[in-house]
Amino acid sequence: MKKLLFLLILYFIPTGCFGIEETQKINLQQAIDITIENNLDIKVTTLDSDIAKNNVKIANRLQNPDFNAFYFLGAAGRSEPNQLGFTELIEIGKRGVRKNLAKANLELVAQNVDYRKFTIEMDVREAYVNLVAAKSVLDTMEQQRELQEELLEIAQRHVKSGFVPEIDAIQATIALNQMITQVNTAKANVKSALFEFNKIINSKEKTFYDSVDKVLYENNNFEELMTPPPTTCFPEFDAISERAIENRYDIKIAKQEIEVAKKNLTVVMRKRVPDLELVGGYAYQTMTQTDDRRYNSGAYVGGNIVNLPVFYNYAPEIKNAKLQLEQAELKYESVKNKAVKDLNSAYYKLQIAAANLNDYETKILTSSEELIDLSVKDYETGKSDLTSLIVMKQSYKSIIVGYTLALAEYYNSWTNFLREVNSDEFELISDSAL
To answer: What is the spatial distance between Cα 104 and Cα 107, in angstroms, rounded to a whole number?
Structure first.
């Protein structure tokens, strides 16, 4: 009840309350293009690439020098030279491997960005189909409401002529009122799907996007919704599986994570290598500091070996890096195993959805349409009662709604299949190609 109330409130909220300037009707391909260009989540993820590129520069940096000044005070100040100089830390065997790690992370980020774009594209396809499906259900409900209104008019004429009892008109009125509430719920569902669709597009532009006004059970929707017809001949699962494993983003990402872990292990192990510190500068003595009262000056140089792994040899860090590499390798195997099972499930659901849709189109719809037309004529001519007609009409409505949901399930099964093969242009073998 609360959900129904929420949907009704959502339906009657004025669009202007959200600061929306215009509504633009778009097809599925346009929805995908607009999303890829304007989606805020994609823009956020794309910035990760810029950050990763800067991290490569950071990893390749040279250490900044230190400026040193030494002035001796007291008795020492009367004889020891003052010094002005610089100290530079030279990393031994660290800069190159650190840069390689940053490059590996850059490649990992790039793959995650591509995966994120692909996932959002699939979300758009699903949201678009769900919106069209909600509109299709609403269209069915409104057709049924019109039919119920016609039945009420027939019942009222029969009651007026004394052909049927008054209860027929009452019963038809109740059925019509029930249908009106179902229409209102369907309208609220359309509004909810519309907002969900725009949430997936997630553009900062104030344009409010809507699907083109078509219903799922119209002809030639498969090409527009970028889905093969249910009569398509699917290839063998082994062929699909082999291609999917090669293309899946999650497997590529898991493999790249192994590469990152290897590079990180090298970086950590290089911490044991001491660094070299070079010192050099200018030294001088004023006339008050020398016995001959002359100004003496010159240069000084020196060197230090720093960060000797004597008291701490980075063993815990190295052990953790090895464990992280082991984790990455196990994750890679896990992702591959799950990928095959997920693909198998999606492939099976797609086949079942196609079979169910074909059954609706070849076995159920035609007979149901003929039956409802015959039932209306029988009641109008007095060959059947209103109760039988209403039951038949409700059954027909359920069949049409079921067919619409079967269509939506088939479209979404195809989208889910594309998710698992990680490709938005996966080609199947059609009947015409056989």
So the answer is: 5
- The burial of 298, by beta-carbon neighbours within 10 Å (0-12 exposed, 13-18 middle, 19 or more buried), is given as exposed
Ordered structural domains, the chain, with CATH: 27-59+91-274+309-433 (1.20.1600.10)
> How far is the C-alpha of 95 from the C-alpha of 88, rounded, in Å?
15
Q: What is the pLDDT of residues 178-200, one digit of tens each?
A: 889 989 998 999 999 999 999 99
Structure tokens at 37: 């260009």
Of 29, 118, 116, which Cα lies nearest the Cα of 422? 118
User: What is the β-pairing status of strands 22-26 and 207-211?
Assistant: parallel
* Length of the chain in terms of residues written: 434
pLDDT tens digits along 112-122: 999 999 999 99
Asked if 131 and 193 count as a contact pair (C-beta separation under 8 A), the reply is yes
Provide the CA 97 distance to its chain's centre, in angstroms: 33
Of the candidates 232, 237, 251, which has an alpha carbon nearest to the alpha carbon of residue 422?
251
- Residue whose C-alpha is closest to residue 353's, from 219, 194, 227, 220: 227
| 8 Å CB contact between 396 and 371 | yes
SS3 64: coil
